Every structure is written in structure tokens, then in C-alpha cells.
Amino acid sequence: MVNFKKENKGSLLAVAILFFSVLFFSSCKNDVLPKPSSYLRLDYAEAKYANFENDCPFTFEMNADAVITGEKDCGFTITYPKMKATIYLTYKPVNNNINVLLKDAQKLTYEHVIKADDILEQPFLDATKKVYGMFYQVDGNAATNSQFYATDSIKHFITGSVYFYAKPNYDSIMPAASYVKNDMQRLMETLKWK
Fold first, then answer.
1. Which of 8, 37, 60, 85 has its CB 3.0 to 4.6 Å from that of 80, i.e. a possible disulfide?
2. pTM
């Protein structure tokens, strides 16, 4: 009499060993997978700052590698050709309209709330130079990543915002956005009225 249980167990064991051997050896090959999209790592030289002064009623320090162009009524564009970025500075005299100027500056920032992940407000006060304002850091895929306004509350009002001439993908422009943000903060901190 033949014991079917022993022969059945032996053949099942042989099939199982064969199956796992095939599975083991077939899983050891290197499959070619497409690489995910990535961005170049961008490192920029340490910024060197120079004082900017002309006939307008204010001075400030700016990055020596940036190019400044005068616009009408003491407005300026500060371009960063390697980064495809531009800081737009707008000057307006205060004529009993400080509340309107403040609302316009805040409205400009909060128009980006649709695309922004977060808007960080950083108040700025320098009582010795009479410079008061707000610096905004806009995180996310907004058109502008940094903005500010500065005033002495009685005569002068300046707004600044940075724009990149690229699709607003925050992850890809983050190194450049951080670099220009630091320059904008330096500009605001060194602002002096004449």
C-alpha cells in the first residue's frame, strides 16, 4: 500500500521550493525605473552690499551684484539677471493718506493668498531712523515670495516686492527666493530718509 500523504507532501514541498527559488532569483535583477523630476542645486556667492544714493529722499544698501534702474517718481527696479528675479520699489509721498497707502500695501500682499500656503508677517521698527513697516514672506506657488512696506508715517512711503520670471514653483526657486528675500530685508533695515 502506498502512502499518498507522504508523496503528496514531498511533491508540494518540491513545488514550494521551486516557486520560492524562481521568485527569489527573479527579484534580484535591477529594474530600470524612471527618475523623478528634480531641480539643480543652486548656490550663490555671499552677498556684498553697497550704499545706493541719488536725488530721491531716501538711501539704502543693496546687493552689489544686482542691477538697479531708476523709474519715474523715485521708483526703482533691482534686477538679478542670473536668477531671473526683479525687486520693484515704489515710492509715494505721504499727504494725509497714510491709511490708504497702508491698506493698498496690505491688499497687494493678500491678493496672493489664493496661491500662498502661508503668509508670515514680520513687523519692522527702527525708531532712531524713523522707519516703520512690515515684511511679508509668502510661502507657496504665489507670484511673489517677499514683499514689504516702510514709512516714517508723515512724509515717505515705500513698497517693495520681488517677482521671478519663471513659473511660480516654490520648490524650484526656493534658493533664489531666499537669497533675494535676504537682500530685501537688508534693504529695509538699512533704509534712511533724507
1. 85
2. 0.75
d(CA 45, CA 17): 61
Cα dihedral: 128, 129, 132, 138 (round 10): -120
Cβ within 8 Å of residue 59, ≥6 positions away: 51, 52, 53, 190, 191, 192, 194
Question: In the beta sheet, which residues pair with residue 49?
Answer: 63
Instruction: Name the nearest CA neighbour of 89 among 70, 103, 108, 75.
Output: 75
Q: Are 52 and 69 in contact (CB under 8 A)?
A: no
Phi/psi of residue 27, nearest 5 degrees: -85, -5
Tens-place pLDDT, residues 109-138: 777 666 667 888 999 999 999 999 999 988
